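Hi everyone, sorry if this is the wrong subforum. Our group has a chain we'd like a structural model of before ordering constructs, and none of us has done structure prediction before. Sequence below.
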Amino acid sequence: MAMTKRSIRILDPATGRGVRVCPGPSSTGACPLARPDGVVPCAGFLIAPAAADPEYWPLPIPIGYRHCDVIWNERARTGLHKAERAHEQWQAGLNREVQRVRKLAAGGDPRYRRMTDRNLEKTALWRWRLTGQAQALRRSEEKNERQAETYLAFVKYRRTSGTISGASTVRSA
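Answer:
Right subforum, don't worry. Here is the predicted structure as tokens:
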């Protein structure tokens, strides 16, 4: 996945004020500003792209850290957004099916005309769940959630195992 050039703000963890700006990872995911010892310039600070989604940013970077996690956080965010879209589409499909079943009941369809509203909703849910579209949307939601969780778990693992020994916390003021 090619990263577009952007400005990543490096923020002081105590004040939240900008300390420096970074162009973000290279197309390979490497930090272009890493020191000769491999430590990234945002180590010990918070990072956030401009116009960052507050649910996923700012991201704390441990002292002595040697990796750029922007790409992994963005992949997790993208996966979660795709999962949310699939869920919304699934719910919209169910709503359409409920409306269709209610319309048939109101029109006197013998299969539905004596059902209560609750039974109509249950029937619509049952019918919708059996469609290929509903099943594909559910699989898409689950797949994207798993991918997002995997990316986040990878970052967490790398942070706990890939830092300078004993230096895995964000520095305080």
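For your construct planning: The two ends are 36 Å apart (CA to CA). Residues 162-173 have pLDDT under 50 and may be disordered.
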